[in-house]
Amino acid sequence: MSKSTNVTSSEAEDPYEERRHQLVDSFTTGRRPEVSDERVIAAMRNTPRHAFVPENLRHQAYLDKPLPVGHGQTISQPSLVAKMTEKLDPQSGERILEIGTVSVYQAAILSELVAEFFTI
Which of 64, 85, 105, 111 has the fewest CB atoms within 10 Å, i.e. the most exposed one? Predict the structure, then answer.
């Protein structure tokens, strides 16, 4: 006898979607949200952090903590990325040049919010 599962098409495409939304909710809702810019929140919800961490750490991708990405570097914790992005206040018509980035995750967030994003 085979067991069937109820998996929606979006879960099949992104098995981490629910965990990502829960994480973003943890620092954007409640009595004292740490981040309130709706554009930043949407970018955080849309950006798959698990794609930027080593495969063996993907199960930790949606914990609000930094994770090692190799060569002594880390990917910043999501709430910090959101706070820094909100403070930067990127506007849709702007162009951003990021030099010497390690966190492609931060770059992915920013690229959703501006007209053009470049990194070298």
Answer: 64
Going along the chain from its start, the domains and CATH numbers come out as 13-119 (3.40.50.150)
Read off the DSSP letter of residue 60: G
Give the pairing of strands 73-75 and 95-98. Answer: unpaired
53-98 per-position pLDDT tens digit: 999 999 999 999 999 988 888 999 999 999 999 999 999 999 998 8
**Angle at alpha carbon of residue 80, lines to 75 and 81, rounded to 5°:** 65
Catalytic status, residue 111: no
What does the CA dihedral 72, 69, 78, 99 come to, rounded to 10 degrees? Answer: 70
pLDDT digits (tens, 9 = 90+) for 91-114: 999 999 888 766 789 999 999 999
